[in-house]
Amino acid sequence: MIDREYCAPSVAHVTIIDPSATLPTNVTAPALTLTTPALNAHVGVNIGGSTNLIGTATDAKGVEKVEFKVLTAGGTPTAFALATLGTPGGTSTTFTAPITPVTGLNTVEVKVTDYKGNTKSLTRVFKVTRPLHVILAGTGTVSTGFAGTTFREVGKPLTIAATPGKDQVFDGWTVNNTAGTAITPLMLELPKLTFTFTEGLELTAKFIPNPFTLALVGTFNSLALPSTTLPAPSGTTPGVANVGLLNLVLDTKGSFTGSLKIDGVSLSTPGFFDNAGVARFSVTTRATTLLLKRTGKPDIELALFLNMTPGSGKLSGTVTQKLLSVVQAVSDIDADRAHYSTANKVSANLAGTATKPYTLVFPSKTQSPAKALNLFPQGDGYATMSVNVNGTVSLTISLADGTAPITASAPLSKLNLWPIFAQLYTLKGSIAGMAALSDAVGTTEDVIGTNLQWFRPIKTAQWYPNGWPAGISIDVNGARYVVPPATPATSVFPGLLAVNATTGNATLTFTGGLLNPLPLPYNINISTANLVTNAPVVASPTMLIDKATGKLTGTFTHSDLTKPAYKGVIIQKGTRKGIWGYFMSRATPVNGLGESGKVQVLAK
At residue 386, does pLDDT exceed 60? Predict the structure, then answer.
Protein backbone atom coordinates (compact mmCIF):
# COMPACT_ATOMS: atom_id res chain seq x y z
CA MET A 1 0.00 0.00 0.00
CA ILE A 2 1.39 3.35 -1.00
CA ASP A 3 1.10 6.22 1.51
CA ARG A 4 0.03 9.45 -0.08
CA GLU A 5 0.94 12.72 1.54
CA TYR A 6 -1.53 15.61 1.17
CA CYS A 7 -0.18 18.51 -1.00
CA ALA A 8 -1.75 21.99 -1.11
CA PRO A 9 -2.64 23.15 -4.64
CA SER A 10 -0.56 25.88 -6.24
CA VAL A 11 -1.56 28.38 -8.91
CA ALA A 12 0.68 29.68 -11.64
CA HIS A 13 -0.05 32.21 -14.38
CA VAL A 14 1.07 31.05 -17.79
CA THR A 15 1.17 33.37 -20.78
CA ILE A 16 1.35 31.83 -24.23
CA ILE A 17 3.02 34.18 -26.59
CA ASP A 18 3.31 34.30 -30.31
CA PRO A 19 6.51 32.43 -31.27
CA SER A 20 7.49 35.27 -33.53
CA ALA A 21 7.24 37.82 -30.74
CA THR A 22 10.91 37.49 -29.85
CA LEU A 23 12.28 37.20 -33.40
CA PRO A 24 14.64 39.89 -34.66
CA THR A 25 12.06 40.75 -37.26
CA ASN A 26 9.75 42.06 -34.51
CA VAL A 27 10.80 45.68 -34.57
CA THR A 28 7.43 47.39 -34.36
CA ALA A 29 7.05 49.35 -31.12
CA PRO A 30 3.91 48.81 -29.10
CA ALA A 31 1.28 51.53 -28.74
CA LEU A 32 0.26 53.28 -25.54
CA THR A 33 -2.75 55.37 -24.56
CA LEU A 34 -3.21 57.03 -21.15
CA THR A 35 -6.84 57.94 -20.61
CA THR A 36 -6.68 58.94 -16.93
CA PRO A 37 -5.56 61.49 -16.04
CA ALA A 38 -6.16 63.49 -19.18
CA LEU A 39 -3.53 65.93 -20.36
CA ASN A 40 -3.40 68.97 -18.04
CA ALA A 41 -6.37 67.64 -16.13
CA HIS A 42 -7.33 68.82 -12.63
CA VAL A 43 -7.68 65.73 -10.51
CA GLY A 44 -9.37 65.91 -7.13
CA VAL A 45 -7.51 63.89 -4.54
CA ASN A 46 -7.92 63.87 -0.77
CA ILE A 47 -4.86 64.89 1.21
CA GLY A 48 -2.65 61.79 1.45
CA GLY A 49 -4.97 59.93 -0.91
CA SER A 50 -4.21 58.20 -4.20
CA THR A 51 -5.46 58.16 -7.74
CA ASN A 52 -5.09 55.67 -10.60
CA LEU A 53 -3.31 55.87 -13.90
CA ILE A 54 -5.61 54.16 -16.42
CA GLY A 55 -4.88 53.39 -20.04
CA THR A 56 -4.55 50.88 -22.85
CA ALA A 57 -1.44 49.19 -24.34
CA THR A 58 -1.38 47.28 -27.65
CA ASP A 59 1.16 45.21 -29.59
CA ALA A 60 0.61 42.85 -32.52
CA LYS A 61 2.73 40.15 -30.83
CA GLY A 62 1.60 40.78 -27.27
CA VAL A 63 2.26 43.25 -24.44
CA GLU A 64 4.80 42.04 -21.92
CA LYS A 65 4.53 44.85 -19.34
CA VAL A 66 3.54 48.42 -18.60
CA GLU A 67 5.62 50.44 -16.18
CA PHE A 68 5.29 53.87 -14.61
CA LYS A 69 7.31 56.26 -12.54
CA VAL A 70 6.66 59.63 -10.92
CA LEU A 71 8.97 62.52 -11.67
CA THR A 72 9.64 64.53 -8.54
CA ALA A 73 9.45 68.31 -8.39
CA GLY A 74 13.21 68.54 -8.69
CA GLY A 75 13.19 66.41 -11.83
CA THR A 76 14.85 63.32 -10.36
CA PRO A 77 12.82 60.31 -11.45
CA THR A 78 11.85 57.46 -9.19
CA ALA A 79 12.32 53.82 -10.27
CA PHE A 80 9.85 52.30 -12.68
CA ALA A 81 7.15 50.14 -11.12
CA LEU A 82 4.86 47.66 -12.80
CA ALA A 83 1.30 48.53 -13.62
CA THR A 84 -1.43 45.93 -13.40
CA LEU A 85 -2.46 44.54 -16.79
CA GLY A 86 -6.01 43.57 -17.48
CA THR A 87 -4.96 40.93 -20.07
CA PRO A 88 -1.33 39.93 -19.47
CA GLY A 89 0.42 39.04 -22.72
CA GLY A 90 -2.53 40.11 -24.77
CA THR A 91 -2.23 42.10 -27.92
CA SER A 92 -4.42 44.72 -26.31
CA THR A 93 -4.75 45.23 -22.61
CA THR A 94 -5.91 47.81 -20.15
CA PHE A 95 -3.65 48.78 -17.32
CA THR A 96 -3.98 50.53 -14.00
CA ALA A 97 -1.46 51.90 -11.58
CA PRO A 98 -2.10 53.64 -8.22
CA ILE A 99 -0.08 56.73 -7.39
CA THR A 100 -0.06 59.15 -4.44
CA PRO A 101 0.36 62.52 -6.12
CA VAL A 102 1.47 65.76 -4.53
CA THR A 103 -0.52 68.95 -4.39
CA GLY A 104 -0.36 70.96 -7.58
CA LEU A 105 1.59 69.85 -10.68
CA ASN A 106 2.47 66.17 -11.08
CA THR A 107 4.42 64.46 -13.91
CA VAL A 108 4.33 60.72 -14.59
CA GLU A 109 6.05 58.64 -17.25
CA VAL A 110 4.36 55.46 -18.52
CA LYS A 111 6.25 52.88 -20.67
CA VAL A 112 4.97 49.81 -22.48
CA THR A 113 7.32 46.94 -23.50
CA ASP A 114 6.69 43.99 -25.85
CA TYR A 115 8.38 40.59 -25.72
CA LYS A 116 11.17 41.61 -28.09
CA GLY A 117 12.03 44.58 -25.84
CA ASN A 118 10.49 47.21 -28.05
CA THR A 119 9.17 50.09 -25.96
CA LYS A 120 6.97 53.14 -26.18
CA SER A 121 6.57 55.76 -23.47
CA LEU A 122 4.68 58.94 -22.82
CA THR A 123 4.82 61.66 -20.19
CA ARG A 124 1.67 63.12 -18.68
CA VAL A 125 1.36 66.33 -16.67
CA PHE A 126 -1.71 66.93 -14.51
CA LYS A 127 -2.68 69.06 -11.53
CA VAL A 128 -3.96 67.74 -8.22
CA THR A 129 -6.74 69.69 -6.48
CA ARG A 130 -7.66 69.29 -2.83
CA PRO A 131 -11.01 69.22 -1.03
CA LEU A 132 -12.66 72.40 0.25
CA HIS A 133 -15.30 71.68 2.87
CA VAL A 134 -18.13 74.23 3.19
CA ILE A 135 -20.62 73.62 5.99
CA LEU A 136 -23.95 75.42 6.41
CA ALA A 137 -24.99 76.09 10.01
CA GLY A 138 -28.56 77.35 10.10
CA THR A 139 -30.83 78.14 7.20
CA GLY A 140 -29.18 79.68 4.19
CA THR A 141 -27.22 79.03 1.02
CA VAL A 142 -23.78 79.73 -0.42
CA SER A 143 -22.63 80.39 -3.98
CA THR A 144 -23.54 77.66 -6.45
CA GLY A 145 -21.03 74.84 -6.51
CA PHE A 146 -19.53 75.45 -3.06
CA ALA A 147 -21.81 73.65 -0.60
CA GLY A 148 -20.47 70.41 0.83
CA THR A 149 -17.11 69.15 -0.44
CA THR A 150 -15.63 70.35 -3.70
CA PHE A 151 -12.10 70.11 -5.06
CA ARG A 152 -10.17 73.31 -5.63
CA GLU A 153 -6.74 74.35 -6.85
CA VAL A 154 -4.47 75.14 -3.94
CA GLY A 155 -3.08 78.66 -3.97
CA LYS A 156 -5.79 80.11 -6.17
CA PRO A 157 -8.16 82.91 -5.06
CA LEU A 158 -11.80 81.98 -4.54
CA THR A 159 -14.89 84.04 -3.78
CA ILE A 160 -17.90 82.65 -1.95
CA ALA A 161 -21.04 84.45 -0.83
CA ALA A 162 -23.53 83.46 1.85
CA THR A 163 -27.23 84.23 1.53
CA PRO A 164 -29.52 83.83 4.57
CA GLY A 165 -32.85 82.07 4.25
CA LYS A 166 -36.21 83.58 5.06
CA ASP A 167 -36.29 85.36 8.43
CA GLN A 168 -32.59 84.54 8.91
CA VAL A 169 -29.47 86.71 8.97
CA PHE A 170 -25.87 85.90 8.20
CA ASP A 171 -23.85 85.44 11.40
CA GLY A 172 -20.32 85.22 10.04
CA TRP A 173 -17.88 82.60 8.82
CA THR A 174 -15.74 80.28 10.88
CA VAL A 175 -12.58 78.75 9.46
CA ASN A 176 -10.44 75.94 10.81
CA ASN A 177 -7.15 77.59 9.83
CA THR A 178 -6.52 80.98 8.27
CA ALA A 179 -2.81 80.44 7.61
CA GLY A 180 -2.04 81.26 4.01
CA THR A 181 -5.64 82.13 3.17
CA ALA A 182 -5.26 85.94 3.51
CA ILE A 183 -8.46 85.83 5.59
CA THR A 184 -8.67 88.47 8.31
CA PRO A 185 -11.10 88.54 11.24
CA LEU A 186 -12.94 91.42 9.56
CA MET A 187 -13.44 89.39 6.39
CA LEU A 188 -15.12 86.63 8.37
CA GLU A 189 -17.89 89.08 9.30
CA LEU A 190 -18.87 89.80 5.69
CA PRO A 191 -21.24 87.60 3.65
CA LYS A 192 -18.91 87.76 0.65
CA LEU A 193 -15.54 86.16 1.31
CA THR A 194 -12.54 86.23 -1.04
CA PHE A 195 -9.62 84.05 0.03
CA THR A 196 -6.68 81.95 -1.14
CA PHE A 197 -7.42 78.24 -0.98
CA THR A 198 -5.09 76.15 1.16
CA GLU A 199 -4.96 72.43 1.86
CA GLY A 200 -7.37 71.20 4.50
CA LEU A 201 -9.49 74.35 4.53
CA GLU A 202 -12.93 74.10 6.09
CA LEU A 203 -15.42 76.98 6.09
CA THR A 204 -18.69 77.24 7.97
CA ALA A 205 -21.35 79.77 6.97
CA LYS A 206 -23.48 80.57 10.01
CA PHE A 207 -27.08 81.73 9.89
CA ILE A 208 -29.36 82.60 12.79
CA PRO A 209 -32.97 83.79 13.12
CA ASN A 210 -33.21 87.55 12.55
CA PRO A 211 -32.77 89.09 16.01
CA PHE A 212 -34.12 92.47 14.90
CA THR A 213 -37.74 91.73 15.71
CA LEU A 214 -40.49 94.26 16.32
CA ALA A 215 -39.83 93.83 20.05
CA LEU A 216 -36.30 95.18 19.57
CA VAL A 217 -36.44 97.83 16.85
CA GLY A 218 -37.87 101.33 16.94
CA THR A 219 -36.85 104.88 17.79
CA PHE A 220 -34.25 105.56 20.49
CA ASN A 221 -33.50 108.90 22.13
CA SER A 222 -30.88 109.84 24.66
CA LEU A 223 -29.01 112.76 26.05
CA ALA A 224 -25.25 112.58 25.74
CA LEU A 225 -24.11 113.56 29.21
CA PRO A 226 -20.57 114.01 30.54
CA SER A 227 -19.04 110.84 31.93
CA THR A 228 -18.44 110.86 35.67
CA THR A 229 -15.29 108.76 35.32
CA LEU A 230 -13.67 109.54 31.95
CA PRO A 231 -11.29 111.02 31.17
CA ALA A 232 -9.49 110.12 34.37
CA PRO A 233 -9.27 110.98 37.13
CA SER A 234 -12.10 113.40 37.78
CA GLY A 235 -14.47 112.89 34.88
CA THR A 236 -15.62 115.26 32.16
CA THR A 237 -16.63 118.77 33.19
CA PRO A 238 -20.12 119.55 31.85
CA GLY A 239 -20.28 122.08 29.07
CA VAL A 240 -21.99 122.79 25.77
CA ALA A 241 -19.18 120.84 24.07
CA ASN A 242 -20.08 117.56 25.72
CA VAL A 243 -23.85 117.70 26.29
CA GLY A 244 -25.97 116.64 23.35
CA LEU A 245 -28.85 114.57 22.02
CA LEU A 246 -28.85 111.31 20.07
CA ASN A 247 -31.84 110.27 17.97
CA LEU A 248 -31.73 106.89 16.23
CA VAL A 249 -34.30 104.91 14.22
CA LEU A 250 -33.63 101.17 13.92
CA ASP A 251 -35.37 98.89 11.38
CA THR A 252 -35.91 95.12 11.21
CA LYS A 253 -32.79 94.64 9.09
CA GLY A 254 -30.56 96.07 11.81
CA SER A 255 -29.95 99.29 9.85
CA PHE A 256 -30.37 102.66 11.49
CA THR A 257 -30.47 106.35 10.69
CA GLY A 258 -30.30 109.27 13.04
CA SER A 259 -28.38 112.25 14.27
CA LEU A 260 -26.18 113.38 17.11
CA LYS A 261 -26.51 117.04 18.07
CA ILE A 262 -23.61 118.26 20.18
CA ASP A 263 -21.26 121.24 20.39
CA GLY A 264 -23.04 123.14 17.66
CA VAL A 265 -23.04 120.33 15.09
CA SER A 266 -25.60 117.83 13.90
CA LEU A 267 -23.81 114.63 12.95
CA SER A 268 -25.70 112.22 10.69
CA THR A 269 -25.36 108.69 12.06
CA PRO A 270 -26.30 106.06 9.44
CA GLY A 271 -25.10 102.52 10.10
CA PHE A 272 -26.20 99.08 11.21
CA PHE A 273 -25.91 96.82 14.23
CA ASP A 274 -24.24 93.45 13.98
CA ASN A 275 -25.89 90.42 15.55
CA ALA A 276 -24.09 91.09 18.83
CA GLY A 277 -25.48 94.64 19.04
CA VAL A 278 -22.31 96.54 18.10
CA ALA A 279 -22.94 99.51 15.81
CA ARG A 280 -21.03 99.46 12.53
CA PHE A 281 -20.65 102.59 10.44
CA SER A 282 -19.33 101.06 7.21
CA VAL A 283 -20.43 97.98 5.27
CA THR A 284 -16.91 97.30 3.98
CA THR A 285 -14.69 98.27 6.91
CA ARG A 286 -17.34 97.57 9.56
CA ALA A 287 -15.91 100.44 11.59
CA THR A 288 -17.20 100.46 15.17
CA THR A 289 -16.83 104.23 15.54
CA LEU A 290 -18.12 107.15 13.52
CA LEU A 291 -15.57 109.95 13.27
CA LEU A 292 -16.24 113.64 12.70
CA LYS A 293 -13.02 115.57 12.14
CA ARG A 294 -13.16 119.25 13.03
CA THR A 295 -10.84 122.18 12.43
CA GLY A 296 -9.82 123.98 15.58
CA LYS A 297 -11.85 121.68 17.80
CA PRO A 298 -11.46 118.12 19.05
CA ASP A 299 -12.61 115.35 16.73
CA ILE A 300 -15.81 113.57 17.73
CA GLU A 301 -16.03 109.76 17.86
CA LEU A 302 -19.36 107.98 18.33
CA ALA A 303 -19.71 104.36 19.44
CA LEU A 304 -23.06 102.64 20.06
CA PHE A 305 -24.17 99.34 21.59
CA LEU A 306 -27.67 97.83 21.43
CA ASN A 307 -29.00 95.50 24.11
CA MET A 308 -30.11 92.52 22.01
CA THR A 309 -32.57 91.21 24.60
CA PRO A 310 -36.03 91.57 22.99
CA GLY A 311 -38.02 94.27 24.73
CA SER A 312 -35.01 95.66 26.60
CA GLY A 313 -35.46 99.00 24.86
CA LYS A 314 -31.91 100.05 25.73
CA LEU A 315 -29.16 101.60 23.66
CA SER A 316 -25.86 102.71 25.16
CA GLY A 317 -22.76 104.37 23.81
CA THR A 318 -20.06 106.97 24.16
CA VAL A 319 -19.20 110.26 22.49
CA THR A 320 -15.45 110.78 22.77
CA GLN A 321 -13.67 113.99 21.88
CA LYS A 322 -9.99 113.71 20.96
CA LEU A 323 -7.42 116.33 20.12
CA LEU A 324 -4.32 114.86 18.45
CA SER A 325 -5.43 111.44 19.72
CA VAL A 326 -5.58 112.68 23.32
CA VAL A 327 -9.01 112.24 24.93
CA GLN A 328 -10.46 115.60 25.96
CA ALA A 329 -13.97 114.61 26.99
CA VAL A 330 -16.25 111.59 27.14
CA SER A 331 -20.04 111.68 27.19
CA ASP A 332 -22.26 108.70 27.91
CA ILE A 333 -25.40 107.67 26.05
CA ASP A 334 -28.19 105.75 27.74
CA ALA A 335 -31.07 105.69 25.29
CA ASP A 336 -34.62 104.49 25.85
CA ARG A 337 -36.75 103.13 23.06
CA ALA A 338 -39.91 105.03 22.16
CA HIS A 339 -42.87 103.21 23.63
CA TYR A 340 -46.00 104.52 21.98
CA SER A 341 -47.30 104.56 18.45
CA THR A 342 -50.56 105.48 16.81
CA ALA A 343 -51.41 101.77 16.74
CA ASN A 344 -50.13 101.16 20.28
CA LYS A 345 -52.12 103.36 22.63
CA VAL A 346 -50.76 101.68 25.74
CA SER A 347 -52.04 104.28 28.16
CA ALA A 348 -55.16 106.27 27.52
CA ASN A 349 -53.97 108.72 30.18
CA LEU A 350 -50.73 109.67 28.46
CA ALA A 351 -50.65 108.90 24.73
CA GLY A 352 -54.34 108.41 24.25
CA THR A 353 -56.74 109.01 21.42
CA ALA A 354 -56.17 112.75 21.07
CA THR A 355 -53.34 115.24 21.37
CA LYS A 356 -53.12 116.61 24.91
CA PRO A 357 -51.85 120.09 25.87
CA TYR A 358 -49.71 120.93 28.90
CA THR A 359 -48.18 124.08 30.37
CA LEU A 360 -44.75 124.10 32.02
CA VAL A 361 -42.60 126.39 34.11
CA PHE A 362 -38.78 126.47 34.39
CA PRO A 363 -38.42 128.11 37.83
CA SER A 364 -35.27 129.89 38.83
CA LYS A 365 -33.41 128.11 41.62
CA THR A 366 -30.45 128.57 43.92
CA GLN A 367 -27.25 127.32 42.31
CA SER A 368 -24.69 124.94 43.72
CA PRO A 369 -21.98 126.06 44.03
CA ALA A 370 -23.50 129.40 44.94
CA LYS A 371 -23.80 132.03 42.24
CA ALA A 372 -24.63 135.71 42.70
CA LEU A 373 -28.31 136.33 41.90
CA ASN A 374 -27.52 139.08 39.41
CA LEU A 375 -25.44 136.68 37.30
CA PHE A 376 -28.29 134.41 36.18
CA PRO A 377 -32.05 134.88 35.58
CA GLN A 378 -34.34 135.24 38.57
CA GLY A 379 -37.38 135.10 36.32
CA ASP A 380 -39.15 131.85 35.46
CA GLY A 381 -39.06 130.45 31.95
CA TYR A 382 -42.12 128.65 30.66
CA ALA A 383 -43.32 126.37 27.88
CA THR A 384 -46.38 125.03 26.19
CA MET A 385 -46.32 121.32 25.42
CA SER A 386 -48.38 118.72 23.58
CA VAL A 387 -48.35 114.93 23.72
CA ASN A 388 -49.40 113.32 20.45
CA VAL A 389 -51.26 110.01 20.20
CA ASN A 390 -48.00 108.42 19.00
CA GLY A 391 -46.25 109.49 22.19
CA THR A 392 -44.29 112.39 20.72
CA VAL A 393 -43.74 115.25 23.14
CA SER A 394 -43.39 118.70 21.53
CA LEU A 395 -42.45 121.86 23.42
CA THR A 396 -42.16 125.55 22.69
CA ILE A 397 -39.90 127.04 25.37
CA SER A 398 -39.34 130.65 26.41
CA LEU A 399 -36.30 130.85 28.68
CA ALA A 400 -36.03 133.65 31.22
CA ASP A 401 -33.02 135.39 29.68
CA GLY A 402 -35.10 136.99 26.95
CA THR A 403 -33.91 134.83 24.06
CA ALA A 404 -36.31 133.92 21.29
CA PRO A 405 -38.59 130.89 21.91
CA ILE A 406 -37.13 127.50 21.02
CA THR A 407 -38.70 124.18 20.13
CA ALA A 408 -37.83 120.63 21.15
CA SER A 409 -39.46 117.26 20.64
CA ALA A 410 -38.84 113.61 21.51
CA PRO A 411 -40.92 110.46 22.02
CA LEU A 412 -41.89 109.04 25.40
CA SER A 413 -40.17 105.89 26.60
CA LYS A 414 -41.95 102.97 28.29
CA LEU A 415 -41.23 104.71 31.60
CA ASN A 416 -42.83 107.89 30.22
CA LEU A 417 -39.52 109.73 30.20
CA TRP A 418 -38.18 111.93 27.45
CA PRO A 419 -35.12 114.13 26.86
CA ILE A 420 -35.50 117.89 26.62
CA PHE A 421 -32.77 119.29 24.39
CA ALA A 422 -32.27 122.33 22.20
CA GLN A 423 -29.23 124.13 20.83
CA LEU A 424 -29.27 127.86 21.56
CA TYR A 425 -27.50 131.11 20.77
CA THR A 426 -26.59 130.24 17.16
CA LEU A 427 -25.46 126.75 18.28
CA LYS A 428 -23.10 128.05 20.96
CA GLY A 429 -25.31 127.07 23.90
CA SER A 430 -27.90 124.49 24.84
CA ILE A 431 -30.43 123.25 27.36
CA ALA A 432 -30.60 119.57 28.25
CA GLY A 433 -32.26 117.33 30.80
CA MET A 434 -34.69 114.48 31.35
CA ALA A 435 -38.35 114.92 32.24
CA ALA A 436 -41.08 112.53 33.36
CA LEU A 437 -44.77 112.56 32.45
CA SER A 438 -47.59 111.20 34.57
CA ASP A 439 -51.30 111.64 35.14
CA ALA A 440 -50.91 112.89 38.68
CA VAL A 441 -53.43 113.74 41.35
CA GLY A 442 -54.50 117.37 41.66
CA THR A 443 -51.86 118.30 44.22
CA THR A 444 -48.96 117.02 42.10
CA GLU A 445 -47.53 118.17 38.78
CA ASP A 446 -47.87 115.94 35.70
CA VAL A 447 -44.44 116.94 34.41
CA ILE A 448 -41.35 116.84 36.60
CA GLY A 449 -37.71 117.28 35.63
CA THR A 450 -34.82 118.19 37.89
CA ASN A 451 -31.36 119.62 37.34
CA LEU A 452 -31.59 120.37 33.65
CA GLN A 453 -28.36 121.95 32.39
CA TRP A 454 -28.56 125.36 30.69
CA PHE A 455 -25.44 126.69 28.94
CA ARG A 456 -25.15 130.28 27.73
CA PRO A 457 -21.94 131.54 26.07
CA ILE A 458 -20.21 134.83 26.63
CA LYS A 459 -21.83 137.26 24.22
CA THR A 460 -22.37 140.97 23.69
CA ALA A 461 -25.73 141.67 25.30
CA GLN A 462 -27.48 143.96 27.75
CA TRP A 463 -28.50 140.97 29.83
CA TYR A 464 -25.92 138.51 31.20
CA PRO A 465 -23.06 139.21 28.75
CA ASN A 466 -20.78 136.86 30.70
CA GLY A 467 -23.31 134.07 30.26
CA TRP A 468 -22.86 130.80 32.14
CA PRO A 469 -20.59 128.66 29.93
CA ALA A 470 -20.16 126.14 32.75
CA GLY A 471 -23.94 125.85 32.99
CA ILE A 472 -26.63 126.57 35.52
CA SER A 473 -29.19 124.14 36.85
CA ILE A 474 -32.94 124.56 36.38
CA ASP A 475 -35.96 122.37 36.99
CA VAL A 476 -39.16 121.95 35.03
CA ASN A 477 -42.69 121.44 36.38
CA GLY A 478 -45.97 121.36 34.56
CA ALA A 479 -49.51 120.12 34.33
CA ARG A 480 -52.16 119.12 31.88
CA TYR A 481 -53.92 122.21 30.53
CA VAL A 482 -57.70 121.99 30.23
CA VAL A 483 -60.08 124.65 28.93
CA PRO A 484 -63.28 124.46 30.99
CA PRO A 485 -66.60 123.95 29.23
CA ALA A 486 -68.56 127.06 28.31
CA THR A 487 -71.25 126.37 30.89
CA PRO A 488 -70.96 127.25 33.66
CA ALA A 489 -68.50 130.02 32.80
CA THR A 490 -65.21 129.26 34.52
CA SER A 491 -61.79 130.88 34.21
CA VAL A 492 -58.80 128.84 33.04
CA PHE A 493 -56.96 130.24 36.07
CA PRO A 494 -57.40 127.76 38.91
CA GLY A 495 -58.87 128.34 42.38
CA LEU A 496 -60.34 131.82 41.96
CA LEU A 497 -62.89 133.37 44.29
CA ALA A 498 -65.47 135.85 43.08
CA VAL A 499 -64.29 139.16 41.67
CA ASN A 500 -63.66 141.76 44.40
CA ALA A 501 -63.50 145.33 43.21
CA THR A 502 -61.51 146.46 46.25
CA THR A 503 -58.94 143.73 46.99
CA GLY A 504 -59.20 141.59 43.85
CA ASN A 505 -59.27 137.79 43.68
CA ALA A 506 -55.58 137.30 42.79
CA THR A 507 -52.20 138.87 43.49
CA LEU A 508 -49.78 139.78 40.70
CA THR A 509 -46.22 140.19 41.96
CA PHE A 510 -43.04 141.35 40.23
CA THR A 511 -39.66 140.72 41.85
CA GLY A 512 -36.05 141.10 40.75
CA GLY A 513 -35.20 142.62 37.43
CA LEU A 514 -33.60 145.68 39.11
CA LEU A 515 -36.90 146.68 40.77
CA ASN A 516 -36.42 149.04 43.71
CA PRO A 517 -37.99 148.49 46.14
CA LEU A 518 -38.77 144.78 46.00
CA PRO A 519 -41.25 143.22 45.49
CA LEU A 520 -43.89 145.06 43.49
CA PRO A 521 -47.37 143.56 44.16
CA TYR A 522 -50.75 144.32 42.56
CA ASN A 523 -54.27 143.23 43.38
CA ILE A 524 -56.06 142.08 40.28
CA ASN A 525 -59.32 140.47 39.32
CA ILE A 526 -59.56 137.61 36.83
CA SER A 527 -63.10 137.08 35.63
CA THR A 528 -64.78 133.86 34.57
CA ALA A 529 -64.29 135.14 31.01
CA ASN A 530 -60.52 135.38 31.68
CA LEU A 531 -60.52 139.18 31.53
CA VAL A 532 -58.04 140.88 33.88
CA THR A 533 -58.60 144.18 35.66
CA ASN A 534 -56.75 145.92 38.47
CA ALA A 535 -58.29 146.42 41.88
CA PRO A 536 -58.78 149.24 42.25
CA VAL A 537 -58.68 150.08 38.57
CA VAL A 538 -55.38 151.78 37.67
CA ALA A 539 -53.37 152.15 34.49
CA SER A 540 -50.70 149.58 35.39
CA PRO A 541 -50.28 146.68 34.93
CA THR A 542 -52.03 145.16 31.91
CA MET A 543 -52.60 141.47 31.30
CA LEU A 544 -54.08 139.39 28.50
CA ILE A 545 -54.79 135.69 28.99
CA ASP A 546 -54.91 133.38 25.96
CA LYS A 547 -57.61 130.95 26.99
CA ALA A 548 -56.68 128.42 24.29
CA THR A 549 -53.03 128.02 25.31
CA GLY A 550 -52.80 129.25 28.90
CA LYS A 551 -50.17 131.85 27.98
CA LEU A 552 -50.36 135.46 29.09
CA THR A 553 -48.72 138.74 28.16
CA GLY A 554 -48.76 142.23 29.61
CA THR A 555 -46.85 145.31 30.65
CA PHE A 556 -46.28 147.11 33.94
CA THR A 557 -44.57 150.23 35.20
CA HIS A 558 -41.08 149.49 36.46
CA SER A 559 -39.54 151.42 39.34
CA ASP A 560 -37.27 153.05 36.74
CA LEU A 561 -40.48 154.29 35.04
CA THR A 562 -40.01 152.15 31.94
CA LYS A 563 -42.83 149.84 30.88
CA PRO A 564 -41.31 146.42 30.30
CA ALA A 565 -43.29 143.60 28.79
CA TYR A 566 -43.79 140.42 30.72
CA LYS A 567 -45.07 136.99 29.79
CA GLY A 568 -45.79 133.65 31.38
CA VAL A 569 -48.11 130.69 31.55
CA ILE A 570 -50.87 129.27 33.73
CA ILE A 571 -50.20 126.06 35.69
CA GLN A 572 -53.57 124.60 36.63
CA LYS A 573 -52.58 122.09 39.33
CA GLY A 574 -49.83 120.98 41.65
CA THR A 575 -47.63 122.92 44.04
CA ARG A 576 -47.07 125.62 41.42
CA LYS A 577 -50.73 126.28 40.69
CA GLY A 578 -50.95 129.82 39.37
CA ILE A 579 -49.15 132.00 36.81
CA TRP A 580 -45.38 132.03 36.39
CA GLY A 581 -43.22 134.06 34.02
CA TYR A 582 -40.56 136.68 33.63
CA PHE A 583 -39.73 140.19 32.46
CA MET A 584 -36.47 141.82 31.37
CA SER A 585 -35.16 145.09 32.78
CA ARG A 586 -34.66 148.09 30.49
CA ALA A 587 -32.68 147.57 27.29
CA THR A 588 -31.01 151.01 27.30
CA PRO A 589 -28.60 152.45 28.04
CA VAL A 590 -26.58 149.39 27.05
CA ASN A 591 -24.30 148.68 29.98
CA GLY A 592 -24.42 144.88 30.26
CA LEU A 593 -26.05 145.07 33.68
CA GLY A 594 -29.60 144.08 32.76
CA GLU A 595 -31.43 141.42 34.73
CA SER A 596 -34.42 139.11 34.46
CA GLY A 597 -37.25 139.40 36.98
CA LYS A 598 -39.99 137.06 38.15
CA VAL A 599 -43.72 137.32 37.45
CA GLN A 600 -46.11 135.46 39.73
CA VAL A 601 -49.91 135.37 40.03
CA LEU A 602 -51.59 133.48 42.88
CA ALA A 603 -55.26 133.18 43.70
CA LYS A 604 -56.34 134.72 46.98
Answer: yes
